[in-house]
Amino acid sequence: MAQRNDTTTPRPRRSRRWRLCALLVGALALVTACGADAGDQSAPPGASGASDGGDAAASSVTRSAAHTGRTVPPASHPASSRSATHPVTHSATASVSSSATAAHTTASRSGARRVCSTEQLRLSLGRKDVGAGNVYMPLVLTNKSTGTCTLTGFPGVSLLDSAGSAIGDPATRRGPSRSTVTLPPGASASAMLHTLNEGTTDKPCRRAPARIRAYPPDSFSSMTVPARSFRVCGGVFEVESVQSGKGA
């Protein structure tokens, strides 16, 4: 009788199991890859176009770092900082430069129009002029210094007795203010005094003064000169603004 061989080989069964496992692994890999691709293509809700560009660049750098295994430091912006501070620096420099220029211009103008002080001037009286009931006498201011100075406007004038006390009120201003007078060394300017002849009106004359006191324009210091024959009558005592020359 022939002997039957009942021995079974497991190769076909193991082959089927390996093929099944291979198919399951492939399917899982495909699903994972598709999910990753879908996640990369989606954008976060509410992101603007500018943010998309920045996020895409950041993601690209992150993925590149992940592949290479290197750490990417956060980006800095030194150029932006410099550009933000430079305009302020330039503006401050321009402001200081403008202020310095204005100060220099003011100083130059101040030097060009130096007001005459009492220390620079000599006070005198010009020739008396009498006519048609009026009396005029120029009050003369002469530059005795070695520098040029200027006079503008009206002097302050009053009459003094021998004790230095004022006689009546100071002179009132007569007429308009004239333009500035420039006095080189030795030059003179004058302001005309005006009163009336005695008897022209029924108002009496003041007491005869011993001296005439004058404050040059823009000065707080006074000067005096002998009054000579000048006397205020008719209730009129006036002074005009300074003009070039001695007035007579």
Briefly summarize what is shown.
With 248 residues, the chain is of the alpha+beta class.
Mean pLDDT: 74
Cα-atom radius of gyration: 53 Å
Give the number of helices.
Answer: 3
Helix content: 25-40%
Tell me the span between the first and last alpha carbons.
178 Å
Number of strands: 12
What are the secondary-structure elements, in order, as H or E? HHHEEEEEEEEEEEE
* Unreliable runs: 36-111
Shape: rod-shaped
**Oligomeric state of the chains?**
single chain
Computed structural class: alpha+beta
The biggest sheet amounts to:
7 strands, mixed
Beta-strand portion reads 15-25%
Q: What report would you give on this structure?
A:
With 248 residues, the protein is of the alpha+beta class. The protein is built from 3 helices and 12 strands. Strands 1, 2, 3, 6, 8, 11 and 12 form a 7-stranded mixed beta sheet that branches. A 3-stranded antiparallel beta sheet has the order 5-9-10, with no helix packed on it. The longest helix is centred in the middle third of the chain and has 35 residues, at 78-112. The radius of gyration is 53 Å and the shape is rod-shaped. The chain starts with 10 loop residues before the first helix and ends with a strand. Mean pLDDT is 74; it is low at 36-111.
